[in-house]
Amino acid sequence: MKNKYVLITGASSGLGYSLLKKFLKENYTILAHSRNKNSLADISKKEFKNIINITGDLSKRSTLTKLKLNYIKYKPSIIINNAGVYISEDFSNISEFQMERIFEVNFFAIIRFLKMIFLKLKNSNCLIININSISGLTGSHKESIYSASKHALKGFFESAQQEFLSKKINLLNIYPGAMKSKITKKRKTYTNLMSTSEVADIIFGMCTNYKSVRFGQVTLLRKKY
Ligand SMILES: NC(=O)c1ccc[n+]([C@@H]2O[C@H](COP(=O)([O-])OP(=O)(O)OC[C@H]3O[C@@H](n4cnc5c(N)ncnc54)[C@H](OP(=O)(O)O)[C@@H]3O)[C@@H](O)[C@H]2O)c1
Question: Which residues have CB under 6 Å of ligand 1?
């Protein structure tokens, strides 16, 4: 029987937290990565029994090593690369440090982690879900670096798809439009955005309720503007 472990990065807030709640409700054990130790503080004691908390900044190799060791120990059948940094700013105002940080978290952390566990992933039938963004498909005003980091992720996974599939590693790339989270809090349109819990429900359905259908790339947009 398939194990019921899922690894979620950035599980402390927004979509990651909604995914954590959804998978918990469906009786999964969660390898929940969060940047800080106390960020899952409002989870009940009962729920916490099914959470293995892995903490650390994803731009640090030590955090990726922790993720690797937990992957090897628990062999989750699903990995959700959700953590991400967003910045809405003119390119001229973005510092080199910010540029590097965005690429470190949104791109390099994901592929470094994959590289670290690749031999173990082979033939595992693991499903890797990458939370990309509509900004990974088209560029937007004030999103040059964020959009570039998400385009890099798209390019990587599209190129690696055949190789991964031949090694029984499944990929699902999700491209959501704007959702209600820390990232969008200040937008005038905030109240009209998709909720992270509805997006989490859809992702859960896609990654667990299919037999022979494979979803490669999925765009999720709100119905009303
Ligand atoms: N919200 C949107 O409109 C939208 C649209 C399309 C795609 N997305 C993507 O959806 C994903 C989730 O974003 P969200 O909207 O749920 O935003 P969020 O609430 O800000 O969640 C982002 C998560 O990533 C974590 N994170 C950020 N930098 C990190 C680092 N250096 N090391 C470790 N963890 C780090 C955050 O941890 P902390 O809590 O410690 O900050 C948080 O758990 C991201 O990949 C984002 O690009 C969002």
Answer: 10, 12-16, 35-36, 39, 57-59, 82-86, 105, 131, 133, 176, 178-179, 181-184, 196
